[in-house]
Specification:
Blueprint (H helix, E strand, L loop, with lengths): L1 E6 L2 E6 L10 E3 L9 H28 L21 H7 L7 H32 L5 H10 L9 H10 L7 H4 L8 H12 L4 H8 L4 H12 L1 H16 L3 H6 L8 H10 L6 H31 L6
Antiparallel strand pairs: 1-2, 2-3
Helix pairs in contact: 1-13, 2-13, 3-7, 3-10, 10-13, 12-13
Amino acid sequence: MTTTSSFGENALILTENQTDPDSKPAVVAPRRRVKRKTWQTVVWFVVLLAITAVVLYPLVWLLLSTFKPNAEFGQNMGLVPNSPTLDNYVKVLEGIAGIPLWKFFLNSFIIAVGSVIGTVLSSALAAYAFARIQFKGLGILFAAMIGTLLLPFHVVIIPQYILFNNLGMVDTFWPLLLPKFLATEAFFVFLLVQFMRQMPRDMDEAARIDGAGHIRIFWSIILPLVRPALITCSIFAFIWAWNDFLGPLLYLTSPENYPLPIALRLYVDQSSSSDYGATVTASFLALVPVLLFFLVFQRFLVDGVATQGLKG
């Protein structure tokens, strides 16, 4: 028989039939509620609303500017266009230099997806070697890899260009994709190494007892457990590859191979004049896939970053 009495938010549970006569009745501590004053809530709401407005203002300006005629740029600096029009969208969708807009989107999609696949696959393999395999020179190689984070990309531009030019890969996507499959992104390797080091090695030992090798352990045990980190790497790799300007500018010379960041330059350089309306509209359309990609996967991004402070 159990009798329960409560006074306010405190609950005291008494049990008559107890196996231990010396045991004391359990007391459930009340949950403390923090009450916030109304004026504090209003102040926080106003502050957050102001910060949100400042952050979203450039995006809102970009969206509304796509409806401005080309003549209003430089005259109407406000958000709302005086004479809204859809001519900018019609002009952009028709393409430029005889190349349709979907071709630029396709080129960017190929580069971004290929970069994600190559970066995630090669970085995961390199991270597994650094985190789970003991070999001579491990510390030196890992320190050298971390040291590449301090090496600016501009230092290796000329040697890389000479190498790819001798291989006949200039004006193709290979110079932009091939390094991604060679674990050249030290940031992602370091991120995955730190994630894998938190996992107990008992799983590896149990798998080896069952006859599993490194490939089986990597594919069946490690990869499923580092899924949040892999998704985090995928998000950053996609966004960086989609917005990359310098790499395609160096290696791509044919307009039909241009991704979106390079194609935007065509609206500025043609006939020594700038089509601001088309440039703004194309910039907004190029931003939409990245924005949608981030909104869909932001939950995984938060999970991947949050679990970096946890230990298995």
